[in-house]
Amino acid sequence: MIDDRPHVLHPQYDVVVAGGGPAGLGAAMAARNAGAERVLVVDREAEAGGILLQCIHSGFGLHHLGEELTGPEYAQRILENALDDGVDVLTNAYLLDIDNDQNLKLLSADHGVAILDTKATVLAMGARERTRAAIRIPGGRPAGIFTAGAAQRLVNLNGVLPGRRVVILGSGDIGLIMARRLTLEGVEVAGVFELMPHANGLSRNIVQCLHDFDIPLHLSTTVVEIHGRNRIDKVTVAPVDEHLNPVLSKAWEIPCDTLLVSVGLIPENELSRELRLRLDPTTSGPIVSSTMETSRDGVFACGNVVHIHDLVDFVSAEAELAGGHAGRFASGVRSPHDNVRLQPSTNVAYCVPHTVTTDQPHTVYMRVRKPLEKSVLRLRDAEGAVVHERRLRYVVPAEMVTLKLRPGVLEGFQGDALHVEVVPR
Ligand SMILES: Cc1cc2nc3c(=O)[nH]c(=O)nc-3n(C[C@H](O)[C@H](O)[C@H](O)COP(=O)(O)OP(=O)(O)OC[C@H]3O[C@@H](n4cnc5c(N)ncnc54)[C@H](O)[C@@H]3O)c2cc1C
User: Fold this and answer.
1) Distances (CA, A) of 325 to 95, 121, 264, 330, 408
2) Which CATH architecture has domain 12-128+266-330?
């Protein structure tokens, strides 16, 4: 859906949101609902909606809306709601810079270079894919090597097939979804190859995208060389040992004209770095408080720019929180500071938010490092005493673990840090 109303840019906004994906649109609506008068969403693409616009499969909105929608349907729903709520959406516009006084510089197809003043900002720039260069596969540079998301865009938005016989490196969700999508389009998918001993996508995608279409998944295996002069004509794959080093004596070749690389997403944090925000080295996103405020007052963040989410529903929930607090900040309301730091400990890669209060309910998202059957999530104090625990049926790195801290759970806790672990029961 394109918002074709003429845009008038105002020099002063209450809240400006960078990025018009589900995170940005959700945050903008929440800011309006929290009382912000003038809210602007800026997106560099021709249409708002973010990555959802190219995800034409269903599976979006089950938790948040109680309905199963396709990506473009979900995007259209939230864009319509945002426009109805009085949010301004400016597309074909790139947010270039934010200075210490919350002056924003943007480059817009309609307005040229514009400087805006805002009381609060929400960063919702999403994430981009890691490329072949990030994992340094040896070989030449023939045509036919794509990221899975680029191939998805070609097939779903441009109606073009990337090739006829495809090898997919990496078992992230985008690669799995493209394995099914290309098979449905008559492309032969020779297999999905995953370096780790476990898959990196959601279990439902392994079943629905690979098992249902008899596409082989090779765990602990990677592409070690790319062959071809003008166009890729084969790849060499090899199993890896327990240190993830390829065992070249067991390598084999697979003829193909296309290699899709699906090896993870990286939050788009150029603006966050400009702002000198404190970043978490594990997520590569900003460190955020329980109100989704970054290390800079009045700058909030949500969605994939903070950490990579598996489901858009969690993005929407986080966006409501960030946008609501940004709206209140613009009206002069300051939330009390958090008093407890969440410290990832055994088998926990990260926790978001990074800090919480003891007297409010919170939802904490985290990822484990290793899969476990029958495990337990524990919060421990500095002396090792268990403050709270919850049993988990199973955990895998590909699926975010959600911990709901209800009021009273941390009542009486006196320390300033809680160690978060997920260990066998
Ligand atoms: C291939 C794929 C399949 C998925 N499948 C599912 C699924 O089945 N079910 C599900 O629930 N979730 C799914 N997801 C996850 C979900 O789509 C994402 O978690 C969600 O889109 C992230 O929202 P976001 O708003 O943070 O980022 P995005 O959707 O990436 O939006 C960010 C926006 O910011 C804009 N932007 C960035 N920088 C700037 C700047 N400086 N100035 C202006 N604009 C900027 C970008 O153009 C983009 O429009 C899938 C994701 C992918 C990639």
Assistant:
1) 21, 11, 30, 9, 22
2) 3-Layer(bba) Sandwich (3.50)
pLDDT score of 5 more than 60: no
**Nearest one of 292, 261, 41 to 172, comparing CA atoms:** 261
- Condensed to tens digits (0 to 9), the pLDDT of residues 58-109 reads 889 888 888 999 999 999 999 999 999 999 999 999 999 998 888 999 999 9
Confidence grade of residue 6 (pLDDT, cut at 50, 70, 90): low
Higher pLDDT, 294 or 137: 294
Q: Two tokens at 207?
A: 């079943």
DSSP per-residue string spanning 330-369: HTT--PPPP-EEEEE-TTEEEEESSEE-SSS-EEEEEEES
The set of protein residues with a Cβ atom below 6 angstroms from ligand 1 is 18-24, 42-45, 50-52, 55, 57, 59-60, 94-95, 124-126, 149, 152, 173-174, 177, 268, 271, 303-305, 309, 311-313, 315
Q: Which of 125, 180, 266, 309 to mutate to test the pocket of ligand 1 (most atoms within 8 A of CB)?
A: 125
Q: Please state which CATH number belongs to domain 340-424.
A: 2.60.40.10
